[in-house]
User: Fold this.
Amino acid sequence: MPPVKIPEGTVPKDARGVKDELETKNKVYSITVEGSMGLSGIGIGGGGGYGGITMVSRGAVGGRAYGMAASPGPRRMIGSGMAPPRSDFDAKRDNENFNTESYAGITENAFLRVGSSPLSTFSIDVDTASYANMRRMILGGSKPLADAIRIEELVNYFTYGYKGPDTAAQPFAVHTEVTSAPWAPNHLLARIGIQGRTLEIAERKASNLVFLLDVSGSMSSWNKLPMLSRALRMLVEKLDTTDRVAIVVYAGAEGVALPSTSCKNKIAILNVLDQLQSGGSTNAGAGIQLAYKIALENFIPGGVNRVILATDGDFNVGLTSEGELLKVVEGFAKKNVFLTILGFGMGNYKDSMLETLSNKGNGNYAYIDSLLEAEKVLVKQMGGTLVTIAKDVKLQVEFNPKHVGAYRLIGYENRIMAAQDFNDDTKDAGEIGAGHTVTALYEIIPPGQAVPEKTVDPLKYQTPPAATVEAEASAELFTVKVRYKTPEGTKSALLSYPVSNTIVAFDDASGNTRFAAAVAGFGMLLRGSKYKGDLTFEKVLTLASAAKGADAEGYRAEFITLVKKAIPLFAAKAAPAPAPDDADAE
Assistant:
């Protein structure tokens, strides 16, 4: 495919805070298509790019060519016989001793006895960053870090074909299925699935978007600013004439690269994206405040008002503490300006900061490790990424002690809420976008089976509460309650779904439940979970392959390939994970 020349355009004269190079015109970019699917690489002429030379990826995964897949070391370019220019940060990153990536610590959920903890309450999570980041590590030949694995984000990377709500008045539908746990056949596995309502093109409201772009020195690597620019081009090309885009850049200081501009003039927007260059330290706090200010100035009542932050999260100047940044994004979230975070790069990636910001900013969070991932998040799932259909979505599951002895929520460790927070409309929770799918899995131990006990003596003056008469007579296993608010609402609505004690044999369970179980099992293995039972990577491979289904987009096939690639990484026998002990049931 020959290079495509973008028609001449100009950066608005009142653009501020951007280097003189922004006046460069007639940028040229090109793409190369390899294999059967997708883009294999990009080249960006001038600016911060590689002189118009097209890069080639180093391989494909499950039939999906991953252009710019994260692989350390020199990357060769078509026709040049040379590696692309390397920044100082590239050199540091390729030094195996230079790695300042940070992840929040995760203590996996333990089994809870129904007698003392009949309610399980948590916020939904639609983020998928952990899956793409895990993929980057495996493709780079590294074992994923345990705390980089958030199992719910692995499971929620996939859609499961859930039926949407019956009426437009409902923002989502809830689906459940109960089967046996493939890693512990005497236990049960309950799947709770939420399917957000999809929007027709004509239903999508006008968007007021502010791109907040990190152009600091740490963003100079090939898989950061160049990929960021191309990713946002994909989004802009899908917007229509009722939408508006502003671009704020930040490094040592913040600046407006493009005032809020109608998408009737996409050339001006695309020109700014093409001409981005990196340099300087990272003053994210000032940039965030400026981006939200512009979003409020151009607020569209009833429309989509969103800041899209693209960064590696390495904030080192200005408001750098999580507390200070959280106050900023929380304040603007209350004014109905929501947040999307796109993470890029490796070596100095600050996942912990970015996940926390998205949680508090009524946001969603994705990691962009390739142009295919950018297409998935910003094009194929544009409605879910941009359009919130319900906010502060909380789930509370009440288990029937007649049929449940103990339970464990798999994942969602940093989304757990106190039981009383479920009915408290002042408590923040997650958002669900148009067409989004959310899945949660519970491992259940039936009554009469061994449940790990705490190492304390039996109670002298009381006994655990007995099941009520209603519970004894009920054929229900548990009840799922959901609270949510409309995107601009302040009072929540309540939905309730009783689930019968009907158990399906695992081999007879739906392909969606079996595949979700395989993904969750993979996450447990990557984390070295003490609850993995008799799981092995080979067993996960068998489970996933049997449940692959139609797989129109190829995402499940890609997962199967990732499992295969993980096997040799974990082939060296490590010390076995400790078995659940007396301290594990609470």
User: Anything to note?
Assistant: The mean pLDDT is 82.
